[in-house]
Amino acid sequence: LVGAEMCIRDWEAGVTWDPNDAQWEESFALLVEYRDREGDCDVPKKHEERGVNLGSWLSNQRTARKKGAMDAEKERRLEELGVTWDPIEAQWEENFALLEEYRDREGNCDVPDKHEERGAKLGNWLSNQRKQKEGRHGRRERAAARGGGRAVANQ
Description:
mainly alpha, 2 strands, two-stranded antiparallel ribbon, 6 helices
């Protein structure tokens, strides 16, 4: 009982048993403030809040989750807050949804290079998608020609 009483007294006095947990909680609280102010959890990589590099912290959380090294409770809390685990994939999906809207409205996907849709540079994004696709096809065809094989579609 003496040990339990000591733990209660320490807790009441504000003793931090695990500094890493305390730091995580502090960063999480800053992320909550950021989300409440900005409307999302899309913190830029180098963004700081009150001296804490919140962008880097969030990037580390994403990495820990990807490696399977994140505590389930912390993952749940971040998800409930609205953290996007793969921001690149999420951005691609948002742009694709804008392209679908454009197609439905205009009847085609011939988006001018400088066209913006709801603040997103949709024309530039689509141009980059086309260049990436051409690059992938060109590499396959060159590899097939060198190897004497044939290019395989949709790889």
